[in-house]
């Protein structure tokens, strides 16, 4: 199937999941994950109506974000991968949203850079929903205090939460993780309850049923990494 056909199919699945939850599909933002995806294929997705794109790695993003032919005024870039403090300079002001803010120290670095640039950087706080020590994010119990401290920083605007469900064969485990994130989202101060980013190719329908407002889809749009990378430039 073509990228356009894949996107149409994903939108159908999003709409069906929203309907099952008594929601409107208009509430759901579809973000295309472009890790290893060529500029040509990103443009194909854009031509099919996708305007939100997510990159995992800062170094790879440098060849795409704001660079012709991808410097379209309606394209919104999101950083969705782990961000190290020493990469903040390369990110702030370049991405519309930094979704993967996982510590107070990182938020402080983003704040400093944003203030220096005279801008307001939008971000999401990443919540750790998986006990795996290799995963990043604020602990569920630590989030309220983090929200209070980060919310007071200059130059940034917290727009919501992001999280990834554990990789598990059980739908019950995945659904429970998304329910936890939704409950945390609902307890945020109202101005921060804008985006709930959860759900990927393997579980986005469950995420929508549990309240996601943005889903991050890569494989279901572009195919496997080897397929997506078939015409990667650089």
Describe this structure in words.
- Helices cover 36% and strands 18% of the residues.
- With 234 residues, the chain is α/β, with parallel strands linked by helices.
Question: Would you summarize the structure shown here?
Answer:
Helix content is 36%, strand content 18%.
Key features?
234 residues; TIM Barrel; eight-stranded parallel sheet; 36% helix
Topology:
Blueprint: H1 3-20, E1 29-33, H2 39-47, E2 52-55, H3 58-61, E3 76-79, E4 97-101, H4 104-117, E5 121-127, H5 143-151, E6 156-163, H6 171-186, E7 195-198, H7 204-209, E8 214-217, H8 219-222, H9 225-228
Q: Which second-level CATH architecture applies?
A: Alpha-Beta Barrel
- From the N-terminal CA to the C-terminal CA, the straight-line distance is 26 Å
Q: What is the strand content?
A: 15-25%
Q: Helix tally? A: 9
Q: Specify the structural class.
A: alpha/beta
pLDDT under 50 segments (min length 5)? 230-234
Number of strands: 8
According to CATH, what is the class? Alpha Beta
Estimated helix fraction = 25-40%
Strand order of the largest sheet: 7-6-5-4-3-2-1-8
- Say what oligomer this is: single chain
Shape: globular
If you average the pLDDT, what whole number results? Answer: 94
Largest sheet: 8 strands, parallel
Rg, please? 17 Å
| Helix/strand order, N-terminal first | HEHEHEEHEHEHEHEHH
Instruction: Return the domain count.
Output: 1
CATH topology: TIM Barrel
CATH homologous superfamily label: Alanine racemase
